[in-house]
Structure formats: structure tokens, C-alpha cells
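Example record for the data management plan.
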Amino acid sequence: MIIMVDIIEYSDALKQRFVDEKRRIKSFIPNNIKIEHVGSSAVGIGGKNIVDILIGVSDATEMRAIRDILVKNGYFEGNDSHDDRIFLASRKEETGEGDFHVHICPISNDSYKDFIILRDFLIANPNRAKEYFEKKCEFAEEANFDRKKYKALKSKYVSKLLIDAKK
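Corresponding structural encoding:
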């Protein structure tokens, strides 16, 4: 089954959705846990308009504990979890506009740092952010709107962006 991807213009409502969801998440996890807004909605550019949330923890044990708390509070573990990062989504099926993707990583890991570096680079470089949005539109078309193919194309581009961001 092919899952389609829609790339749409940015909506200001996404920043408020992050604020509201951050408040909700903070109501059931320890106060010392860092919660960051990352991804395109944090930068203010269009895309799938999913709100990406990065949760920074101290180690793998805390990462799993936070995952368990979030699952008990309505999140679903996705297929994109790794040893150094756990991926959750607000819906079990592929998510769409206005939904949440949560990435839980130890703060000391490269995955955590890369999310922050990329977000801050794109905010500081609006021309590169605009270019990134345009590339996402191109990748969606090139992939014939197949979400899996789109993600592969976008992933290669993001790796190159990260290299520039780390210079």
C-alpha cells in the first residue's frame, strides 16, 4: 500500500499546537526533561505540517521510561526508533497535518544535537529555509507523492544541510 505525502504551506497554528502539547506532556513527565520544538513547523516553513517535538533525556533508561509514559498517554511507537532515539506519533497510522511526532533522545547523542543544529541553522538562514521548503515540494513530485520515496529523497538532502549547518 502506497501512503501519499502532501506538502502544504506553513500554518501559524502549528506553533500554538506545540505550546499546547508541550504543556500537556509536561503535566505527566518530570520537570527536568527538556522539550524542544524542531522540524519545519519550528522553522516556520511548510511541509507535511506535522509538529515535531524533541524530548531530551539523560540516558537510555530515562528514554525508555519517558516512552512508556507517553504511550500510556496516547502516543504510539513508530517504526523509526533506534538505539539512540525513540520515535512516537500521535496516531497509530501515518500521521498528517497538525499531528505530533515525538523524538526522544539522550541530550549527549548526535541525534539530539543534529535536530537542534538544523533547526537553529534554518531559522538563522531564511534563504536556506525557503530553499528547503522548495526542495520538499520537488521531492514530493519526484517521488510521485509516495511518502516512503519522498522521505528517502528528503533524508539525503537533510544530511547535506546538516553538513553546512555544522560548518
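Summary line stored alongside the record: Residues 147-165 form the longest helix (19 residues).
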